[in-house]
Amino acid sequence: MVGFGAALSLAQFAFEYTGGKFSGFAQDAEVDEYERKEQLRRNRRRPIEQTLQEMGEGRGIYGPGYQERRRERLKQNYGIDVPETFPPASP
Question: Which helix (H) or strand (E) holds 50?
Fold first, then answer.
């Protein structure tokens, strides 16, 4: 009995979530899908400068000149000289 109720509630949820259709929401047939997705990308993309200004550097997001700024910061704070390229680990 509980399994039947769970299955029925899942089916009703799917029906409600898809807008009253099991095939999903109706999409405009006149709009090309590729153009629609390109428009969404253009609408949502932000320039890297804006992202860096809001979030700051780190977490995988680094602006131009980051390595030089990092080298200077490490030298100033810790006195460590970081080389531009590291020597190979094995000869």
Answer: helix 48-55
